[in-house]
Amino acid sequence: MNGNMMFQPLLISSLIEHAEMYHGDTAVISKNTDGSMTHSNWAQVAKNSKRFANVLQSFGLSLSDRVATVAWNNHRHLEAWYAISGSGLICHTINPRLFPEQLIYIINDAHDRVVLFDKNFVHLIVSIKEYLPNVEHFICLDAYDSAIVDAFPEVKFYDQLLDTQSDQYVWPELEESLASSLCYTSGTTGHPKGVLYSHRSTVLHSYAISMPDSLNFSAMDVVMPVVPMFHVNAWGAPYTAAMVGCSLVLPGPMLDGISLVNLIDQYHVTNALGVPTIWQGLLTAAHQLGSQLHSLKRNVVGGATCPPSMIKTFRDVYQCETIHAWGMTETSPIGSVNQLKAKHAELSEAEQFKLRFSQGRPPFGVTLRISDDEKSQQELPRDGQTTGHLQIKGHWIVDTYFGKNSNALTEDGWFDTGDIATLDADGYLSIRDRSKDLIKSGGEWISSVELENIAIAHPEIENVAVIAATHLKWDERPILIAKKSATSQITETDLLNYYTDKIAKWQIPDKVIFVDTIPMGGTGKVLKKDLREQFGAILLES
Ligand code: ADP
Asked: Which UniProt keywords apply (predicted)?
């Protein structure tokens, strides 16, 4: 017997409808590409998204056609997002920091029929447009600009298109399993692959991350997603913001520390989301500017390991609770979030703090296990000690990559993340490394993450990466690539001595290489592949 309850499909359009109806006057503030600010609200965002849905309809697109966006976090991008997915098309967010060849590959692989782009990407789009045979409409997310038309005669302008359309549009009743958006993995470890989210997976993910033990969004918050909308949908923040009716501050293209501190202070941001490199820049800028970041109560850190020293600075200096979360493109992205439990109140402050370093535990809706091999079904103990291949399943986890026929899962239906981790009995996850970044020294594993966390805590060190270098005797040994602060006189010996008593002697790196810059990928992660190519043979040279 079925239950006698209403059935309503879980649709992305219902999020924007809710925000329009119950939180219409809540602010959505956005920095434009020229640095000016736009003050809007959920009612206005909803109206413009309906206008843009009418524009898309006028193009004669078919259900599930792909519409790409190459844009920063701003109000037009947000409106277009809801218009695209809400009207049954697929919003394909693209990372503009990719190489032009990768952009071309991704746009063609996805068969995008429309490309929306921010004004500051016009040269990029002009340089690749002749290689995009499937794209019928190029839309600049801005007001009309004759200078752009000179370089790009066929371009259309978002604001002009909106002016031609009514804000009356009835969101279609779609199947909840229909695809809503498409995001390619950032390719840190291999060729980009498309992950195709559904309306259902997105709405369920939004519920999960809004909860107090998760990213903890409420209608009282002013949320600033610094993580770009092209990086796994800004970790779902713009969807959850509409669901709970919080205020949004969209930082546009200026993601340097000073710009972010100013936004936080001016608009009283209470919760912000970003990768560790963003927070590193913000902490330096807050110190320089003498800001206390008064309004910031929480910040979410993910995408790469958050160094414990950073969590401590946010807590001790700024009274801001850092929420360390783990996820990936294939997991929508949230797979675990670090929040404590009631029983932890009995622990000492030091013990509580130690617990907060880990990547946290899974919210309802996903399950984690570690296994002895990528393909294996042999679960390893959840004892907080045993290290294994991290696997996941749940409502918002990829099943099959876009355009591929066979699924990406183990035989018993789990997705192998490529991460190496421990899990404890409560499900607290500690990422030890990516399987490709682990250092295998004389048959023992050394975690590059652990070595990086120690070095980054040194006050004269700005950024680090530990990689495996080939070694004749031990196969691989760790070497440390470090960027020191401008005034630092630190030497290789000083930095190696800093490891003494913090880690077993045999795990201390063999060498330190000081560099001016550490190569970062488009989503703010260290490109270890490049570093391995450059320095991987250095221990063979002497
Ligand atoms: P790519 O795999 O191309 O870098 P993703 O952005 O999907 O693209 O990256 C996911 C990976 O990032 C995870 O598999 C994991 O290795 C790493 N990661 C994400 N969050 C964390 C975290 N909190 N701590 C450590 N590593 C993390």
From this structure: Fatty acid metabolism, Ligase, Lipid metabolism
